[in-house]
Amino acid sequence: MLDTILSLGQIDSKYWLEDYWNKNGDPRIADYFLMSSFRPIIWIQLIYSIFVLHVGPKMMENRKPFSLKWTMITYNILMSCLNAYFVIFAIVLHNFALDMFDVKFPSFTDRSAHTERIFRLHYLFTISKLFDLLDTIFFILRKKNSQVTVLHFYHHFSVPFQAWSYFRLCGNSAIVIPFGLLNSLVHTIMYAYYGMAAFGPHMRKYLWWKRYLTQLQIVQFVCICIYLIYFIAKQQGYPRYFFYNLLFQSILYIFLFGKYYFTTYRKIKQ
């Protein structure tokens, strides 16, 4: 199916799905699960998209919503703890995050024990972006379809692709440190918020700070943009994809989160 779709656009599917990554990717992590080809991640995202945009809502149309209370509480607590783990070990393994200022593209010959630990951390972070997809699945099963906004869907659809491509092209590039650190910090707080909310309506009085979480999400991308401007000026040997794609995505997220914040909280004030 993927080959057929790509062939209709006159695209060499084997090259872009496999050969390109094997040729340009980091050979040190080529044997990691899901890293040898782009195909699995595309299939996962296609199945996710079909389910949340069509199959799921259709399946739930004449059914009562699932409660999933304890499933969601457990999921959110575990995801909050996992992201806290990323924050702590990103600081530990990246010299209090100061490694982000190492602007030279890493050598693929570095196979030290320290680098291997960084690989494992970055790989687990990459795979965790697939676990994030359960957010949307829970919305659909609870018939909270209005929660699946353009921002929500785009975020969950695009981030696994982005995380996979950056890890596959270089398992220990410094440019991903600010995003990984800030993203994990925000998700630690975000999943804690949703874990509290899952206990029920009586928790609402403790959840007045949701708007500040959205503000934090905007601030993280502003910080990443500032960092990328510095990085682009100083970088040595990085392929353009690394910084221009990340800069574009950050600017896009500032717009999307800004639009969401303005629309949501302007309505509340009115």
From TrEMBL:
<keyword id="KW-0276">Fatty acid metabolism</keyword>
<dbReference type="GO" id="GO:0009922">
    <property type="term" value="F:fatty acid elongase activity"/>
</dbReference>
<keyword id="KW-0812">Transmembrane</keyword>
<keyword id="KW-0443">Lipid metabolism</keyword>
<keyword id="KW-1133">Transmembrane helix</keyword>
<dbReference type="GO" id="GO:0005789">
    <property type="term" value="C:endoplasmic reticulum membrane"/>
</dbReference>
<keyword id="KW-0808">Transferase</keyword>
<protein>
    <recommendedName>
        <fullName>Elongation of very long chain fatty acids protein</fullName>
        <ecNumber>2.3.1.199</ecNumber>
    </recommendedName>
</protein>
<feature type="transmembrane region" description="Helical">
    <location>
        <begin position="242"/>
        <end position="262"/>
    </location>
</feature>
<comment type="similarity">
    <text>Belongs to the ELO family.</text>
</comment>
<dbReference type="GO" id="GO:0019367">
    <property type="term" value="P:fatty acid elongation, saturated fatty acid"/>
</dbReference>
<keyword id="KW-0472">Membrane</keyword>
<dbReference type="Pfam" id="PF01151">
    <property type="entry name" value="ELO"/>
</dbReference>
<dbReference type="GO" id="GO:0030148">
    <property type="term" value="P:sphingolipid biosynthetic process"/>
</dbReference>
<feature type="transmembrane region" description="Helical">
    <location>
        <begin position="173"/>
        <end position="200"/>
    </location>
</feature>
<dbReference type="GO" id="GO:0042761">
    <property type="term" value="P:very long-chain fatty acid biosynthetic process"/>
</dbReference>
<keyword id="KW-0444">Lipid biosynthesis</keyword>
<feature type="transmembrane region" description="Helical">
    <location>
        <begin position="77"/>
        <end position="98"/>
    </location>
</feature>
<dbReference type="GO" id="GO:0034626">
    <property type="term" value="P:fatty acid elongation, polyunsaturated fatty acid"/>
</dbReference>
<dbReference type="InterPro" id="IPR002076">
    <property type="entry name" value="ELO_fam"/>
</dbReference>
<feature type="transmembrane region" description="Helical">
    <location>
        <begin position="37"/>
        <end position="56"/>
    </location>
</feature>
<feature type="transmembrane region" description="Helical">
    <location>
        <begin position="118"/>
        <end position="141"/>
    </location>
</feature>
<keyword id="KW-0275">Fatty acid biosynthesis</keyword>
<dbReference type="GO" id="GO:0034625">
    <property type="term" value="P:fatty acid elongation, monounsaturated fatty acid"/>
</dbReference>
<feature type="transmembrane region" description="Helical">
    <location>
        <begin position="212"/>
        <end position="230"/>
    </location>
</feature>
